[in-house]
Every structure is written in structure tokens, then in C-alpha cells.
Write a structure and sequence with these properties.
This protein is α+β, with helices and mostly antiparallel strands and 202 residues long. The chain has helices spanning 56-69, 100-109, 183-191; strands at 3-4, 16-20, 26-30, 53-55, 74-77, 90-94, 114-118, 134-138, 150-152, 165-166, 198-200. The protein binds zinc ion.
Length: 202
């Protein structure tokens, strides 16, 4: 499974970011260029990391969410060290005009199958996100394969379409991401303001 890294993250030009396209190819975009209808390349680098890059699947699904919500999505964390963020597979987002519950549903509808909902203490998941907190959404395929510098092209979730993703990051670090709830259990926990507000599935 997978083919060797083509090294494109190491070769990102100054002032550019990288997108791993659905066919596995690498494309470099100037920081200010739009990479989808509503998102610029640099929005996937709020930490200012160099070099940086993300998977096209992540960009596409975020744009689907943006279209459905009809209001801006603020990316507070994207490419950085640690967990699936380090492989360009994840973003943390805030939508001040929507509630945590609305965002979790929109993420699921857009195809995300690894979701974590983190509210700020003292607020409710029914409240809008203007109170703080974030939602982590993630296109990691759940394969458990973690060798840095390799392209993986087939997720182990057989119901999901194949897409290439690239292990930029830290071996094994993504096990901590999301709890094995069903999506309906996640939504029930959010509505009841209970803990355990992650989801991972196919
Ligand atoms: Zn995150």
C-alpha cells in the first residue's frame, strides 16, 4: 500500500503552500491565492509554519461545509506539528454565527468522519461558537499507517473512496484524535451537554 514520498513538502517555494491533489500530485500555491471558492492558501497556515501543506480532500470538504453554512469559517489551526495536523489532514475551525451542534452536523454532512467538538467552559454546545471553543475536523483514513514521508492511497474504511494522503508528520501521533462514538451518540452527547464529544467512523 502506498508509494514513496516525492519530496514535495521539502521543495515548497518561499511564499507558497502545498496542496496534495486528489491524484497524488503536488501543487504549489502563493499564500494569497484562493485554493477553493472561499479559502486562500495561507488560511491553512495560521501558525506560520514553513514549509506547510494540506490535502485537497480537506480543502474540498471544508468548502462544502462553507457552502452549506453560508457564513465564514475561521480556521484557527491547520498545518502544524502534532496529531493529524502534522500530515495536513486536519483543521480546527470556529464559526461564530453557528452553534457547536450545527457545526458538527455540517461537518458530518460534508463527509468528515473524524470530528471533535471542544466548547469553552461555562457555555453549552447549543450556544453559538462566538463564546470560544473549536471543532476539529479531519480526513485521516484510519489506516494506522504512520510512516513519515509516504503517500497512502487507499483507506482501510472500505465504504470510503480512495484518495491519496501524505504522511508529513509524527509517527503514530494521530491515535489520540477523536473517540469511537457513533455519530448519533456524539449528537446525543452534544444535545445533553455531556462529555465525550468526539466521533470517528467510516
Ligand atoms: Zn485539531
Amino acid at each position: 500500500m502506498g508509494v514513496q514520498d516525492t519530496g514535495c513538502l521539502r521543495n515548497v517555494p518561499a511564499g507558497y503552500g502545498l496542496i496534495r491533489e486528489l491524484n497524488g500530485s503536488c501543487r504549489y500555491f502563493p499564500d494569497n491565492q484562493f485554493v477553493s471558492a472561499n479559502f486562500r492558501m495561507k488560511e491553512f497556515n495560521p501558525s506560520g509554519v514553513r514549509p506547510y501543506g494540506v490535502m485537497r480532500k480537506l480543502v474540498n470538504q471544508l468548502q462544502v461545509m462553507r457552502n452549506a453554512l453560508g457564513v465564514p469559517i475561521i480556521i484557527t489551526s491547520a498545518y502544524r506539528s502534532g496529531s493529524t495536523h502534522a500530515s495536513g489532514l486536519a483543521v480546527d475551525i470556529v464559526v461564530p454565527r453557528k452553534s457547536f451542534i450545527q457545526l458538527a452536523q455540517a461537518a458530518y454532512n460534508a463527509g468528515f468522519r473524524r470530528i471533535e467538538v471542544v466548547k469553552r467552559a461555562g457555555t453549552s454546545y447549543s450556544n453559538t461558537m462566538s463564546f470560544g471553543g473549536h471543532v476539529h475536523v479531519d480526513v485521516y483514513d484510519g489506516s494506522g499507517i504512520s510512516t513519515s514521508g509516504t503517500i497512502y492511497d487507499c483507506p482501510t474504511c472500505s465504504s470510503r473512496p480512495c484518495y491519496p494522503w501524505y504522511a508529513f508528520g509524527v509517527s503514530g501521533s494521530w491515535w489520540a484524535t477523536s473517540q469511537p462514538n457513533t455519530f448519533s451518540q456524539l449528537m446525543a452527547n452534544l444535545r445533553a451537554d455531556r462529555g465525550n464529544t468526539g466521533y470517528r467512523g467510516c
